[in-house]
Amino acid sequence: xxxxxxxxxxxxxLVLSLRKVCKVFGAxxxxxxxxxxxxxxxxxxxxxxxxxxxxxxxxxxxGVHAPTSGTMTFRGKPVTLAGPNDxxxxxxxxxxxxxxxxxxxxxxxxIFLGEELNPYALDEVAMEIRxxxxxxxxxxxxxxxxxxxxxxxxxxxxxxxxxxxxxxxPKLIMLDEPTAALGVAQTAEVLNLIERVRDKGLGxxxxxxxxxxxxxxxxxxxxxxxGRNNGIFYPDSxxxxxxxxxxxxxxxxxxxxxxxxxxxxxxxxEMRP
Amino acid sequence: MSGDAKTxxxxxxxxxxxxxxxxxxxxxxxxxxxxxxxDLGSLPVVVGLVLICAVFQTLNPVFLSSGxxxxxxxxxSTVGVIxxxxxxxxxxxxxxxxxxxxxxxxxxxxxxLWVNAGWPVPIAILVALAVGCAIGIAYAALFNWLGMPSFVxxxxxxxxxxxxxxxxxxxxxxxxxxxxxxxVDLGQTWIMPHVIAYGLVLIAGVAVFVTGSRRAAQRRVAxxxxxxxxxxxxxxxxxxxxxxxxxxxxxxxxxVPWMFxxxxxxVVAMDYALTRTKWGRSMMAVGGNREAxxxxxxxxxxxxxxxxxxxxxxxxxxxxxxxxxxASSSQQAGTGDVNLNAIAAAVIGGTSLFGGRGSAYSALLxxxxxxAIASGLTLLDLSxxxxxxxxxxxxxxxxxxxxxxxxxxxxxxxx
Lengths: 273, 415
Ligand SMILES: Nc1ncnc2c1ncn2[C@@H]1O[C@H](COP(=O)(O)OP(=O)(O)O)[C@@H](O)[C@H]1O
Ligand SMILES: [Mg+2]
What we know:
heterodimer; A: alpha/beta; Rossmann fold; 4-stranded antiparallel β-sheet; 11 helices; about 35% helix; B: about 425 residues; mainly alpha; ABC transporter involved in vitamin B12 uptake, BtuC; 2 domains; 17 helices; about 0% strand; globular; binds adenosine-5'-diphosphate; binds magnesium ion
């Protein structure tokens, strides 16, 4: 564990930095004082139990929800996202957990939604070719890109959503449970893809419940529990450590580690039953 | 080129599981598959139209006479334009129940400004359209900023516009438009010279062929499978021959009304906007999944605003045209079944009430069906009570077909 503490910070520039981000839905505090850093060329895995606030955090970063409070810095500049448009313009691409595809439109239309080539006379041929290339990169098994999304399986839809996020050459990619519905080959392909975009110098935030996948690609593992940071781990952390941080079983090693790594917000005591 | 294609299948033909229909037989097979899965397109309305024509023709042989059909096209154009706006609003999954009153208000504005105040016609028309547009923008504001359901806002708009129409027309209740004017000519007598009608049909046929083969060439160059040349040629030829026959038949009487030409022109332009532009794609996306559209960076509020504004503006234009058709602005304009017919036409033509699915051509097909029924029933001299009941029944059938087709699409994964 000692060597984990002395690990050098990632070398790439800081792409994204969140400080004390809170999000309140009525009576529910979905996020409380969440801090998160993502560097260029780094894969940060975001893990936590169901309802921990992972998807909410992703939506805040994607401009879907406005944070209740807190600051966000993107590539050194403080930013406020007024809507999804702002996030896309900054170069933040997102694969949402619910995929956010239009079932009535075909694959090409979904991949290019909002980014159509040639707005006054759509260039269908160029869009179709680019779609096939993106899908082939992901080894997608999609029979036809001219069928409506409704005719695709869950895994195929997920691949379309991932292809969509790659379209704009983003600086930061967020994938919310991207492999949940994928088969063995496609999961491997998505993990390869995550490594490829990392090697291209992009920042990646990946959410997954599969610890094996997380360990395979993540450079750091950020744990969320009940809407709060619950420690930063590394792929060589033991399963026990991770699981207890996720589930909140009172493990002294975890809490000691937590206190060393985080500036204490004085709220840890509340989290324990 | 062909050798290349054999060794390496083109991008869109790599998946071996998919049957790729080639040539004419393939096109027919693909069509049958689509229909079976509930993707009916304009099939029900074409079948319905043939049935309606057969029934009315046996009951009264005047029905399919050239003269009656020319009148039918005159009558279709006014409500058809209103229905085109309804298509827009239905595509984004909303409704406008006030199109009838807005059209009536527009005709009243036209009458008051043109006849009573002596303004030039173009200005009077522009003011009427601008008022329609403003009404649509008001609905959009209520919808976007206050979350007011369009069903409610347009229902109150129906009353407000009707009230304003009655107020403008005042005690007299109706204003006659001058018979010797261009606008009334357009609405009542103005017919395309026969040569021009044939010429337009030929231009349409050539345009279909040229755009089709240009697309095929682009796909071939890009390494995608092009549609078959025979298919493109056949389509263009069939269309040209069918339209030539229709125009020839209409020319036996007076010919094709200019007003109908205006309507068809609007339909073609709307179809282009809906299928070939980013705006149209955004309309479909908002109707299909509003939240997905928002997350894709589409300005959803602006799309709703454009749909509401377009719908009300086209309703106002429809009102101007029906004033021209009747040569008057009256308290009756836009009341009665105008509202219902405009909405029914869009739905009968195949635009879904559930949003995200529809085409400009459904306004054209649907209004011809509605007017065919109306004209047939008038020829049979049925009372208006029976006419309302029958039209209502036809609308119910259309909505049932829409619902069943939707259910079938869901179960075939094409919703
Ligand atoms: N739009 C919303 N309105 C109200 N509560 C929400 C909303 N979205 C999420 N929440 C709440 O926020 C908490 C975190 O949810 P979420 O971020 O989806 O968790 P997960 O980590 O499983 O992705 C949950 O308690 C959920 O009920
Ligand atoms: Mg989630």
